[in-house]
Design brief:
2% of the residues lie in helices and 29% in strands. The chain is mostly beta strands.
Length: 176
């Protein structure tokens, strides 16, 4: 991967792509994105109004749909689909202030990592809590709240997300 070059052609209008972003070959970025300190693999597409924070990783040939929020500590492997308005969370106990009342700083909390394995798909509006792994080829239903690991090739949905069935064999091996 290479660091993004600051030029009019490399940065879509009204987007912010920091110099420390690592972009693979043929990455397509739509307008109004905010990328900093992250890496994005070859051939991925980043939709309008997406934010990807520092130390987040997006693999090759991924589709990140509009309005998605991918925070620090999230790794998305190759060939994944992230639907519209999917939100990842990286803090088990979020708060604005410490017990003494001062505004929290970086030292006051710890990033909890989340992993989305190869070929997984996450439906629009899903919320993915920190510390979970979404298994290879898994499918998270739209609007779901994922609070625990999702096994490979499994369909989950609901709040909290519950296992519904296995991904049909032909879809699991089609590369979606």
């Amino acid at each position: 991967m290479r660091a993004v070059r600051k030029s009019r052609r490399a940065v879509p209008e009204f987007s912010r792509i920091a110099p420390d972003v690592k972009l693979g070959k043929d990455v397509k970025i739509f307008p109004f994105v905010n990328l900093y300190g992250c890496s994005i693999g070859d051939g991925s597409r980043i939709g309008t109004f997406v934010e990807i924070q520092k130390n987040a990783k997006v693999g090759k040939r991924c589709k990140i749909s509009s309005h998605a929020f991918i925070c620090e500590g999230v790794t998305i492997e190759d060939g994944c689909f992230i639907g519209h308005h999917v939100v990842f969370i990286n803090d088990r106990y979020p708060g604005a202030v410490t017990s003494s009342g001062r505004l929290q700083a970086k030292a006051d909390w710890k990033v909890v990592e989340t992993w989305v394995c190869r070929g997984a798909s996450i439906g629009s509006g899903a919320v993915i809590l920190c510390g979970v792994t979404i298994g290879e080829g898994a499918l998270v239903g739209a609007g779901s709240v994922v609070t625990k690991d999702v096994p490979p090739y499994t369909v989950v949905a609901g709040n909290p997300a519950k296992e519904l069935r296995k991904v049909p064999l032909r879809q699991a091996h089609s590369g979606r």
